[in-house]
Amino acid sequence: MASSINANNIDGTYPIAGQDNDSQGFRDNFTNIKTNFTNAKSEIEDLQSKVVLKSALTGTTLDNSGGGAIISDFEQKDMSETRVSKGTTSGAITFNFAEGPYQTVTTSGSISPAFSNFPASGKVGKMRLEITIASTAHTVTLPSSVTIGADTLQGIVPSTKVITFDATGTYILEFSTDDAGTTVAVNDLTRTRTKQDIRTATATGQSGDVAGMMVVDSTNVYVCTGTYDGSTVIWKKLVLQAI
Fold first, then answer.
1. DSSP label at 36?
2. Full-model pTM
3. What are the start-end ranges of the H helices in the chain?
4. Each residue's pLDDT tens digit, 102-160
5. Are residues 181 and 200 in the same domain?
6. Which residues contact 30 (CB under 8 A, 6 or more apart)?
7. DSSP strand E in the chain: where?
8. How many of the other CB atoms lie within 10 Å of CB of 59?
9. CA torsion through residues 200, 211, 154, 223, sign
10. 46 is in which domain, residue-wise?
11. Would 63 be classed as within a structural domain?
Protein backbone atom coordinates (compact mmCIF):
# COMPACT_ATOMS: atom_id res chain seq x y z
CA MET A 1 0.00 0.00 0.00
CA ALA A 2 1.04 3.63 -0.43
CA SER A 3 2.09 5.35 2.77
CA SER A 4 -0.14 8.11 4.16
CA ILE A 5 2.88 9.90 5.59
CA ASN A 6 3.43 13.15 3.70
CA ALA A 7 6.99 14.39 4.02
CA ASN A 8 6.22 17.47 1.94
CA ASN A 9 3.52 19.05 4.07
CA ILE A 10 6.01 20.38 6.63
CA ASP A 11 7.42 23.82 5.80
CA GLY A 12 11.10 23.38 6.66
CA THR A 13 11.83 27.07 5.97
CA TYR A 14 9.40 28.25 8.64
CA PRO A 15 9.88 30.26 10.80
CA ILE A 16 12.09 32.68 8.94
CA ALA A 17 14.86 34.11 11.13
CA GLY A 18 15.03 37.83 11.75
CA GLN A 19 11.40 38.65 11.01
CA ASP A 20 7.98 38.50 12.61
CA ASN A 21 6.35 35.16 11.68
CA ASP A 22 2.62 34.53 11.66
CA SER A 23 1.65 31.94 14.31
CA GLN A 24 -0.58 30.19 11.72
CA GLY A 25 2.53 28.76 10.10
CA PHE A 26 3.50 27.17 13.43
CA ARG A 27 0.01 25.72 13.82
CA ASP A 28 0.05 24.30 10.29
CA ASN A 29 3.43 22.64 10.84
CA PHE A 30 2.42 21.21 14.23
CA THR A 31 -0.86 19.89 12.82
CA ASN A 32 0.86 18.24 9.88
CA ILE A 33 3.57 16.73 12.12
CA LYS A 34 0.89 15.28 14.43
CA THR A 35 -1.01 13.86 11.43
CA ASN A 36 2.15 12.22 10.10
CA PHE A 37 2.96 10.73 13.52
CA THR A 38 -0.60 9.34 13.72
CA ASN A 39 -0.30 7.84 10.24
CA ALA A 40 3.12 6.39 11.05
CA LYS A 41 1.79 4.78 14.23
CA SER A 42 -1.10 3.22 12.33
CA GLU A 43 1.13 1.89 9.54
CA ILE A 44 3.74 0.47 11.95
CA GLU A 45 1.05 -1.30 13.98
CA ASP A 46 -0.41 -2.69 10.76
CA LEU A 47 3.00 -4.09 9.80
CA GLN A 48 3.55 -5.51 13.30
CA SER A 49 0.31 -7.46 13.05
CA LYS A 50 0.97 -8.87 9.56
CA VAL A 51 4.67 -9.33 8.77
CA VAL A 52 6.68 -12.56 9.08
CA LEU A 53 9.40 -12.13 11.70
CA LYS A 54 12.67 -13.89 12.51
CA SER A 55 12.09 -13.38 16.22
CA ALA A 56 9.42 -11.94 18.49
CA LEU A 57 9.06 -8.20 18.82
CA THR A 58 9.68 -6.78 22.30
CA GLY A 59 6.78 -7.59 24.61
CA THR A 60 5.19 -10.12 22.24
CA THR A 61 5.40 -13.83 21.45
CA LEU A 62 6.39 -15.02 17.98
CA ASP A 63 3.44 -16.03 15.78
CA ASN A 64 4.12 -16.46 12.08
CA SER A 65 0.81 -18.11 11.24
CA GLY A 66 -0.03 -17.21 7.66
CA GLY A 67 -3.74 -17.89 8.02
CA GLY A 68 -3.82 -19.72 4.70
CA ALA A 69 -2.07 -16.98 2.70
CA ILE A 70 -0.37 -18.11 -0.51
CA ILE A 71 3.43 -18.03 -0.71
CA SER A 72 4.68 -18.22 -4.29
CA ASP A 73 7.85 -17.86 -6.35
CA PHE A 74 10.26 -18.51 -3.47
CA GLU A 75 13.44 -20.58 -3.45
CA GLN A 76 13.79 -22.81 -0.39
CA LYS A 77 17.10 -23.56 1.26
CA ASP A 78 17.99 -25.37 4.48
CA MET A 79 14.34 -25.89 5.45
CA SER A 80 13.16 -28.38 8.07
CA GLU A 81 9.83 -29.91 9.09
CA THR A 82 8.26 -30.22 12.49
CA ARG A 83 8.57 -33.71 14.00
CA VAL A 84 5.99 -34.78 16.57
CA SER A 85 6.62 -37.78 18.83
CA LYS A 86 3.66 -39.68 20.23
CA GLY A 87 5.98 -41.80 22.35
CA THR A 88 5.37 -45.48 23.08
CA THR A 89 1.71 -46.36 23.21
CA SER A 90 -1.13 -48.57 21.96
CA GLY A 91 -4.80 -48.35 21.07
CA ALA A 92 -6.47 -45.42 19.31
CA ILE A 93 -4.11 -42.54 18.48
CA THR A 94 -5.13 -39.28 16.81
CA PHE A 95 -2.51 -37.63 14.64
CA ASN A 96 -3.22 -33.90 14.30
CA PHE A 97 -2.09 -32.53 10.93
CA ALA A 98 -1.85 -29.02 12.41
CA GLU A 99 0.89 -30.17 14.82
CA GLY A 100 3.35 -31.19 12.11
CA PRO A 101 3.78 -33.20 8.89
CA TYR A 102 6.06 -35.88 10.36
CA GLN A 103 4.87 -37.82 13.40
CA THR A 104 6.29 -40.86 15.15
CA VAL A 105 5.02 -43.60 17.41
CA THR A 106 6.44 -46.79 18.92
CA THR A 107 3.97 -49.58 19.58
CA SER A 108 3.47 -51.15 22.99
CA GLY A 109 0.53 -53.04 21.50
CA SER A 110 -1.69 -52.85 18.44
CA ILE A 111 -2.59 -49.31 17.33
CA SER A 112 -5.45 -47.67 15.44
CA PRO A 113 -4.38 -44.33 13.90
CA ALA A 114 -6.90 -41.56 13.23
CA PHE A 115 -6.39 -38.12 11.68
CA SER A 116 -7.62 -34.62 12.47
CA ASN A 117 -7.33 -31.09 11.07
CA PHE A 118 -6.41 -31.92 7.50
CA PRO A 119 -6.56 -28.82 5.18
CA ALA A 120 -9.89 -27.74 3.74
CA SER A 121 -11.26 -29.55 0.72
CA GLY A 122 -9.49 -28.47 -2.47
CA LYS A 123 -6.09 -28.28 -0.76
CA VAL A 124 -3.67 -31.19 -0.43
CA GLY A 125 -2.44 -32.28 2.98
CA LYS A 126 0.31 -34.87 3.47
CA MET A 127 1.43 -36.53 6.68
CA ARG A 128 4.10 -39.16 7.22
CA LEU A 129 3.85 -41.58 10.12
CA GLU A 130 7.02 -43.26 11.34
CA ILE A 131 5.78 -46.38 13.13
CA THR A 132 8.23 -48.49 15.08
CA ILE A 133 6.77 -51.99 15.45
CA ALA A 134 8.15 -53.40 18.69
CA SER A 135 6.59 -56.86 18.24
CA THR A 136 5.19 -58.75 15.27
CA ALA A 137 2.12 -59.34 17.42
CA HIS A 138 1.35 -55.61 17.13
CA THR A 139 -0.92 -54.63 14.26
CA VAL A 140 -1.90 -51.30 12.69
CA THR A 141 -5.57 -50.78 11.84
CA LEU A 142 -6.09 -48.00 9.30
CA PRO A 143 -9.16 -45.75 9.54
CA SER A 144 -12.03 -46.40 7.11
CA SER A 145 -11.24 -43.15 5.28
CA VAL A 146 -7.97 -44.66 3.98
CA THR A 147 -9.26 -46.16 0.75
CA ILE A 148 -6.75 -45.25 -1.97
CA GLY A 149 -3.82 -47.66 -2.16
CA ALA A 150 -4.70 -49.46 1.06
CA ASP A 151 -5.71 -52.82 -0.38
CA THR A 152 -2.28 -53.48 -1.89
CA LEU A 153 -0.20 -52.71 1.18
CA GLN A 154 1.96 -55.57 2.38
CA GLY A 155 0.35 -57.50 5.22
CA ILE A 156 -3.06 -55.84 5.05
CA VAL A 157 -6.43 -57.56 5.21
CA PRO A 158 -8.48 -55.28 2.93
CA SER A 159 -11.83 -56.05 4.56
CA THR A 160 -10.63 -55.00 8.01
CA LYS A 161 -7.71 -52.69 7.09
CA VAL A 162 -5.57 -54.48 9.66
CA ILE A 163 -1.84 -54.58 8.79
CA THR A 164 0.43 -57.24 10.23
CA PHE A 165 4.21 -57.08 9.99
CA ASP A 166 6.64 -59.91 9.27
CA ALA A 167 9.43 -58.28 11.28
CA THR A 168 9.93 -55.71 13.98
CA GLY A 169 11.43 -52.41 12.89
CA THR A 170 10.53 -48.94 11.68
CA TYR A 171 8.07 -48.39 8.85
CA ILE A 172 7.05 -45.07 7.28
CA LEU A 173 3.56 -44.62 5.83
CA GLU A 174 2.58 -41.46 3.96
CA PHE A 175 -1.06 -40.33 4.00
CA SER A 176 -2.51 -37.65 1.71
CA THR A 177 -5.92 -36.13 1.05
CA ASP A 178 -7.45 -33.33 -1.01
CA ASP A 179 -10.95 -33.43 0.49
CA ALA A 180 -10.27 -32.61 4.16
CA GLY A 181 -9.73 -36.25 5.11
CA THR A 182 -12.93 -37.74 3.73
CA THR A 183 -10.84 -39.86 1.35
CA VAL A 184 -7.23 -40.60 2.24
CA ALA A 185 -4.51 -42.23 0.14
CA VAL A 186 -1.69 -44.26 1.67
CA ASN A 187 1.78 -45.10 0.42
CA ASP A 188 4.33 -47.33 2.13
CA LEU A 189 7.68 -45.53 1.87
CA THR A 190 9.74 -48.38 3.31
CA ARG A 191 8.43 -51.48 1.50
CA THR A 192 7.37 -52.36 -2.01
CA ARG A 193 3.71 -53.06 -2.67
CA THR A 194 4.47 -56.37 -4.40
CA LYS A 195 5.65 -58.65 -1.65
CA GLN A 196 8.14 -61.34 -2.52
CA ASP A 197 8.56 -64.04 0.10
CA ILE A 198 9.82 -67.59 0.49
CA ARG A 199 6.90 -69.87 1.19
CA THR A 200 4.74 -72.50 -0.46
CA ALA A 201 1.47 -70.89 -1.44
CA THR A 202 -1.85 -72.68 -1.13
CA ALA A 203 -4.62 -72.28 -3.69
CA THR A 204 -6.83 -70.01 -1.58
CA GLY A 205 -3.90 -68.29 0.12
CA GLN A 206 -3.84 -66.71 3.55
CA SER A 207 -4.88 -63.52 5.32
CA GLY A 208 -3.17 -60.50 3.76
CA ASP A 209 -2.69 -62.00 0.29
CA VAL A 210 -3.56 -59.56 -2.52
CA ALA A 211 -3.20 -59.53 -6.29
CA GLY A 212 0.36 -58.99 -7.51
CA MET A 213 2.15 -60.73 -4.66
CA MET A 214 4.82 -63.27 -5.58
CA VAL A 215 6.33 -66.01 -3.44
CA VAL A 216 8.75 -68.81 -4.20
CA ASP A 217 9.82 -72.13 -2.78
CA SER A 218 12.39 -74.69 -3.96
CA THR A 219 10.27 -75.90 -6.88
CA ASN A 220 7.75 -73.20 -7.87
CA VAL A 221 7.12 -69.49 -8.39
CA TYR A 222 3.66 -68.46 -7.21
CA VAL A 223 1.68 -65.40 -8.37
CA CYS A 224 -1.37 -64.10 -6.52
CA THR A 225 -4.26 -63.04 -8.79
CA GLY A 226 -6.87 -61.93 -6.27
CA THR A 227 -7.61 -60.90 -2.70
CA TYR A 228 -7.81 -63.50 0.04
CA ASP A 229 -11.36 -64.31 1.14
CA GLY A 230 -10.87 -67.82 2.51
CA SER A 231 -12.43 -69.74 -0.36
CA THR A 232 -11.56 -68.32 -3.80
CA VAL A 233 -8.55 -69.80 -5.61
CA ILE A 234 -6.19 -66.85 -5.96
CA TRP A 235 -2.74 -68.40 -6.46
CA LYS A 236 -1.21 -69.79 -9.65
CA LYS A 237 2.24 -71.29 -10.09
CA LEU A 238 5.10 -71.85 -12.52
CA VAL A 239 7.29 -74.91 -12.06
CA LEU A 240 11.01 -74.17 -11.78
CA GLN A 241 13.32 -76.20 -14.01
CA ALA A 242 17.03 -76.74 -13.75
CA ILE A 243 19.16 -74.87 -16.27
1. H
2. 0.73
3. 23-50
4. 999 999 999 999 999 999 999 999 999 999 999 999 999 999 999 999 988 888 888 89
5. no
6. none
7. 83-96, 102-116, 125-133, 140-141, 146-148, 156-157, 162-163, 169-177, 184-188, 196-198, 214-216, 220-224, 235-239
8. 5
9. positive
10. 1-52
11. no
